[in-house]
């Protein structure tokens, strides 16, 4: 089998990282893969050991000419199926290219953003099968009228060999971020966009810091709201003392195991790769009850869930975890076990392979 994958993201965020995992797993099973991605994108380098990488211009939703470029690539590589991994225009123009070339097409849906029924009716008829990375996303698509037979939940995966409990870097971690011995660290790893809930966390911090003055907060990531969040922190003496914005980091496998709590009070979230990575590292979680987050955060087992925007609930959850090393240890151990059981790379690869088979069969029948 040969699969043409299309990923339009420039950065190696959660979705693109999942594509790399999939390519690696498919290669191990003897599947020939080709990846089309933007020129200069981070995934081009990461995917090179596992697939033939073709870099091309991808300009987003208005890039109608992408259809032609992908049609030419399809004719060249002759794939058995085309797998579209992102939006930014590749979901529409990639599907049209595959349809025009007579090749089955699969879409991976990684976000729970609602779409109008009119758009859904037109758009989703282009795909033979649709993969959702959480049941939360599947439920959104069902509510918008996508036929159940076309939807398949294949959970995202985390590399548990790479992300694991390992506090041997604790001295490096404290030196790197200027932390003192005995300080407790809350981390958040997310793009600086409104739906991730940074503002909810900042709203909760005064009460959390009153109860735990030895707490520090590290907000990792980049995005359009970073300057706004940074200005809010710098404009408050308490937050300035306790909060850092270290930017986007490529060494999260060393950082996450050193956190005491990971907070992710999102309003919308397809699944939450940073939650998976932190859980794999044995870190207790606090997440918003949104999208696929409840499929990772199990209240009373590996973390706590709050209603999105509920500052008081977030304060209580963080205080509970910061206040008990025993609870943090218990939640962390359970989180590691939960990820190993439910979010393996092997299961994700098997799930996608099954969808490819159904797409080819559906296409042949049509």
Automatic annotation (TrEMBL):
Q: Which SUPFAM superfamilies match?
A: UDP-Glycosyltransferase/glycogen phosphorylase (SSF53756)
What is the scientific name of the source organism? Answer: Aquabacterium commune
Gene Ontology terms for molecular function: glycosyltransferase activity
Q: Source organism's superkingdom?
A: Bacteria
Stretches assigned to the Glycosyltransferase subfamily 4-like N-terminal domain: 14-161
One Pfam entry name? Glyco_transf_4
Q: Does the keyword Chaperone apply?
A: no
Which keywords belong to this entry? Transferase
InterPro entries in the record, alphabetically?
Glyco_trans_1, Glyco_trans_4-like_N, Glycosyltransferase_grp1
Annotated ranges, domain Glycosyl transferase family: 174-338
The name of this protein is: Glycosyltransferase involved in cell wall biosynthesis
């Amino acid at each position: 089998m040969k699969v043409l994958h299309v990923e339009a993201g420039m950065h190696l965020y959660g979705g693109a990282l999942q594509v790399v995992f999939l390519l690696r797993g498919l290669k191990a099973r003897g599947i020939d893969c080709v990846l089309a991605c933007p020129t200069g994108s981070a995934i081009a380098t990461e995917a090179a050991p596992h697939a033939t990488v073709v870099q091309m211009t991808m300009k987003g939703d208005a890039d109608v000419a992408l259809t032609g470029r992908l049609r030419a690539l399809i004719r060249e590589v002759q794939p058995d199926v085309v797998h579209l991994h992102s939006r930014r225009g590749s979901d529409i123009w990639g599907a049209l290219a595959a349809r025009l070339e007579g090749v089955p097409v699969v879409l991976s849906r990684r976000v729970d953003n609602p779409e109008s029924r009119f758009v859904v009716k037109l758009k989703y008829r282009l795909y033979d099968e649709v993969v959702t990375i959480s049941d939360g996303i599947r439920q959104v698509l069902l509510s918008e009228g996508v036929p159940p037979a076309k939807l398949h939940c294949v959970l995202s995966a985390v590399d548990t060999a790479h992300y694991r409990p390992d506090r041997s870097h604790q001295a490096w971690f404290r030196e790197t971020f200027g932390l003192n011995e005995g300080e407790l660290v809350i981390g958040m790893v997310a793009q600086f966009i409104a739906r991730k809930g940074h503002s909810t966390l900042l709203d909760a911090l005064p009460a959390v810091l009153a109860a735990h003055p030895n707490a520090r907060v590290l907000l990792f990531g980049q995005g359009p709201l970073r300057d706004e969040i940074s200005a809010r922190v710098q404009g408050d003496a308490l937050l300035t003392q306790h909060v850092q914005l270290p930017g986007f980091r490529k060494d999260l496998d060393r950082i996450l195991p050193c956190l005491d709590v990971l907070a992710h009070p999102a309003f919308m979230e397809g699944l939450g790769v940073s939650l998976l990575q932190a859980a794999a590292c044995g870190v207790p979680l606090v997440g918003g009850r949104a999208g696929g987050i409840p499929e990772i955060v199990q209240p009373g087992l590996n973390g706590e869930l709050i209603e999105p925007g509920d500052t008081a609930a977030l304060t209580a959850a963080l205080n509970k975890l910061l206040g008990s090393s025993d609870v943090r240890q218990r939640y962390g151990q359970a989180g590691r076990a939960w990820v190993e059981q439910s979010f393996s790379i092997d299961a994700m690869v098997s799930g996608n392979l099954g969808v490819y088979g159904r797409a080819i069969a559906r296409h042949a029948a049509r």
